[in-house]
Here is the input.
Amino acid sequence: MFQKALLSVWLFFSLCTISFGQDLYQIKGSVLNVTTLQPIEGINIVGHKRYAISSKTGEFTINNMANGTYTFKVSHIGFDSKTVTVVVASASVTLPIYLKESSTKLDEVKVLGKSKKRILKEIPIVSQTVSKEFLENNRENSLMQTLSKIPGVSTINIGSGQSKPVIRGLGFNRVAVVQNGIKHEAQQWGNDHGLEIDQQGIENIQIIKGPASLLYGSDAIAGVVDIQPNKIPSKNSFNGEVNILGETNNDLVGISAGITSRKDKWFYRSRLTYRDYADYKVPTDKINYENYVFDLYDNNLRNTAGKEADASVSIGYDTNNITTETTFSNVNAKNGFFANAHGLEVRTSSIDYDSSNRDIDLPYHKVNHFKITNNTSIKTDNHKLYFDFGFQNNVREEHSEPVPHGYMPKPENSKERVFKKNTYSINARDAFKPDNRHDMVVGLNMEYQDNNIGGWGFLIPEYDRFTAGIFGYDQFEVNSNLHILAGVRYDYGLVDTKAYYDWFQSTINNDDDSTSYVYLQRSQDRTLNFGNISASLGVSYINNKTTYKVNIGRSFRMPLSNELASDGVNYHMYRYERGNIDLDPEISYQLDVDVDHTTNSFSVGLSPFVNIFENYIYLNPTSSYYETLQIYEYTQAKVFRVGGEFRANTSISNNLQLDASVEYVYSIQTSGAKEGFTLPFSPPLSALFSANYKFKDVSFFKNPQLVADFRITAAQEEIVPPEEITEGYQLLNMSFLSELNVFKNNTPIEIRVKLNNVFDTKYFNHTSFYRLIDVPEAGKNLSLSVTIPF
Here is the structure.
């Protein structure tokens, strides 16, 4: 009897279940990336008592749905959250969902609750953040060539493997390059001296346009390239990558490998990079220098080959209240100079420069830059303390064929000049909030340099340099959309030059018609002191999708030793250079404005500036000669500069993005020997148009995209003798980017194929080092880069 009763109950509930099941429905859907149309795995679809996660194909299923209307929240890290509503009225409902990648990332200081993009909008400084993606997609032979796609940034190129930054027409020691909080100190005063920085493994760079002396010291009078520390790795993580690079123009072969690992609180990183390249090719077979025609074998710019070996390792410690990381790095390079750029002696040289395109003959340089940095931050209740410590050792040797010059006999070796610099740096700052509206920072920078020289050719003396600066600024929030930043800084500097006498005797004609043989003195023991004030006041106003910024600042720059005390032949420039010990510090006033309007589909921005120098320092060619070489003397003049950048981008569709930028700088000397002339190395009007088209996946090619960059540069007719007018040009570069899912369940391999100078155009870059001897830029170049993560 009991069994019959139990059976009856079971049948009753079964019938109820069948009857109820006839009214239950199913939701099927897929989640796709709105930009790439690729499926997204791991997306959370959450509703009231309903939950699903998308598969590798982006698909998901929600069962047992009754007739009605339902709301689901769709979310995942890296994508904007989305709320969708679905009406269930049939047995099966299809629900496609498209998600947009997040345009911002939360700042590491999570208590702020602001994105990095929002923070940059609130700071009244004209700056631009360069992401790791940009650096990887636009990588060129040197870091600054990679950054030259940024509006307002150009380069002084020294061959195919070296370059130095120019921001709005100003370069050399007027632009500070900062890495891991420490200002990079090498021999950047020289026209032919590049940066000793490995661009592999860099994740984030901030470029500040305009005076930044308030935070970075006097050498930042024109701007800053701030290579910021990489983000702290996640706990219990290990990853790395190998990058392989090849190029056709200079037969470059390069490899770089890096790893990052962390357990609990301790982490480390390391990287090795090696590059070897041959002479690069130019789209001409003849070079005309000083009315002498040099034939180029197979279009090779002879003796421009080089090689570079870089290494870095760091160890760090991270907790809630303290983070510290110590980094050791070394960059070692050997590069040849175009033989015919080092004077006319090459006509009688016994070196067969065309025997091989990979050998490095005289003239060449060797440079080794060793650096130790430590970055430490300590959090307290209302303060965050930052400390940066740095030591740098830079050794640069310049070798050339030993030949007699004037009274100088033939030297015993090829070591023409040696520069040795030791730099010790300390930065300290305290960031705190006295209340919810103020973000205040006070800080101190100190730097000491010990500079020594060697070799048989004199250009600058040995010297010591000490600088110290104290600063403070306050960013005041009037309301959530209006911010004011005001700050002041005082710098003190000391330059102590050492006496130098020639190692050979020169002939001197005395007043009594007699002749003396003396060791000429090229520099004196002199101690110079400098001190001055920098100040800045800026306003940022955010009105919905438009941001307005206005900043006015006063800054100054200490004269360098070459400007104060040089007195010798610079054969790389084929001239005699003479310093002026009575130079005053440069004083600059600048007004910067930035207007940016950004929506979901397009953005447009304008960044004009006005700049006045009270006493700009420059090298002026004179009518005097020394042993057939024209004498150039450092002097000062008032300078007026105006210019700016325009930028715009838009998404025509989910797959096509267009970008455009225009940059222009006008400079004029309003006093001095070159009144009415512009400044040396002034970049011409230039525009860059880019198109990026993203394709659907093809076979194992994932997220493929084709990029075209078309640059139009106007002629530069505003010149300073001995510069020559440079004709305008048009240049097309193409690149193909994609990911390869060769190994399933692993991070995809990234490939980049780039064709520079598609039509092998012969053109001249007005700011190139070799422009002075009519050497065009490199011809067509096909490069292949493969990044294999692990």
About this structure: Residues 32 and 332 are 47 Å apart (CA to CA). Residues 110-789 form a domain with the Maltoporin; Chain A fold (CATH 2.40.170.20).
